[in-house]
Amino acid sequence: MRKVAIQDANILIDCSQLGLLSLVMELPFLFQTTDLVIAEMLDGVSYDAVQECIDRKKILVKSLSADQLSTLEEMMQGLKGLSVEDCSVLQLAVTEKAVLLTSDKVLRKNAEKMGLEVHGTLWVIKELVKNSLMAPNEACEKLHLLQSTNERLPASILEELMKQWCS
Asked: Which of 160, 121, 163, 157 shows the shortest CA–CA distance to 142?
């Protein structure tokens, strides 16, 4: 059985902007997100690519139950700096005992405090190379593109990957 990976909006947006979303769906995970995250993305340029993955059943969209929504409200009160969408993916990751994919620093830190496995966009690209879905030279190109669109990347990891794939 494949491991469940819960996707936050920023991962979906990064992967879409890099032209990698359909390739990411080939990784050995069962991808899920929440309806709140999808609603958040409705007006964005990445929405069509994400919707295509949903239509192809590559991303399962979950709605939180009444009990989960109640827990979500409690969570939002206890965790400062997180949006309702952030808390929804955090709640889903806890419920599903899943990996959380996010590049949001505050969400990441809170998820790690809760004992969740958390990874960002750079890890996703590493997984594409590791699973032979992308060649290192193509990963190098994507890192440069990502660097130009996302200024919040962890510099040390980015530098390490560029040394590995771009030399």
From this structure: 121
* Token reading at 7: 């996707």
CB 99 within 8 A of CB 77: no
Cα four-point dihedral sign 135, 138, 144, 145: negative
Please write the tens of the pLDDT for every residue from 66-125. Answer: 888 888 888 888 888 899 999 999 999 998 999 999 999 999 999 999 999 999 999 999
3 state DSSP class of 153: coil
Please report how the helices 155-165 and 121-130 are oriented relative to each other, as an axis angle in degrees rounded to 10: 20
Q: Where are the alpha helices (DSSP H) in 79-154?
A: 84-96, 105-113, 121-130, 136-149
- pTM (2 decimals)? 0.93
Q: Write down how long the chain is.
A: 167
Spacing of C-alpha 108 from chain mean position? 11
Count of Cβ atoms closer than 10 Å to residue 166 Cβ = 13
Position 70: which residue type? S
Q: For the segment 18-31, what is each residue's pLDDT rounded down to a tens digit?
A: 999 999 999 999 99
